Amino acid sequence: MIKKDTFIEIETVVLQCEDRSPAIPDDTKETPLKMWVRGFVNSDCELGDEVEITTTIGRTMRGIAKVVEPSYSHNFGSYVSEIAYIGKQAKEMIFNK
Q1: Is the C-alpha dihedral spanning 69, 15, 57, 62 positive or negative?
Q2: Could you say which of 12, 47, 53, 93 is the most buried, measured as most Cβ atoms within 10 Å of its Cβ?
Q3: Parallel, antiparallel, or unpaired: how do β-strands 60-68 and 50-54 relate?
Q4: Where are the alpha helices (DSSP H) in 19-67?
Q5: From first to last of its 97 residues, what are the pLDDT tens digits of the chain?
């Protein structure tokens, strides 16, 4: 049971496959366009229920409850050896060392 006013993440389908632009690649057309939004649930619910949330800026959104108290995470991806020397190379080019 997810209690009212719990911070959750919902998922909503913005465009079904058949509604997507013909200008996008075929493999992309086979997937619906989805949106994930976080906010505070307006009533008690369970994961998978269609719910209404209020975002931190006050918008009301509807969608399927997916995650309870989602965390924020960010990274810059895996190490790329090809760009590891760029800083040193740029310094050499600028300062002719």
Answers
A1: negative
A2: 53
A3: antiparallel
A4: 26-29
A5: 999 999 999 999 999 999 999 999 999 999 999 999 999 999 999 999 999 999 999 999 999 999 999 998 888 889 888 888 888 888 888 998 6
CA–CA gap between residue 79 and residue 74 (Å, rounded): 15
Name the pTM for this structure: 0.74
- Do residues 3 and 47 lie in contact, with contact meaning Cβ atoms separated by under 8 Å? no
- Distance, in Å, from the CA atom of 10 to the CA atom of 43, rounded to the nearest integer, reads 14
CB 41 within 8 A of CB 64: no
Token pair 């509807």: residue = 62
What distance in Å separates the CA atoms of residue 40 and residue 53, rounded to the nearest whole number? 5
CB 62 within 8 A of CB 12: yes
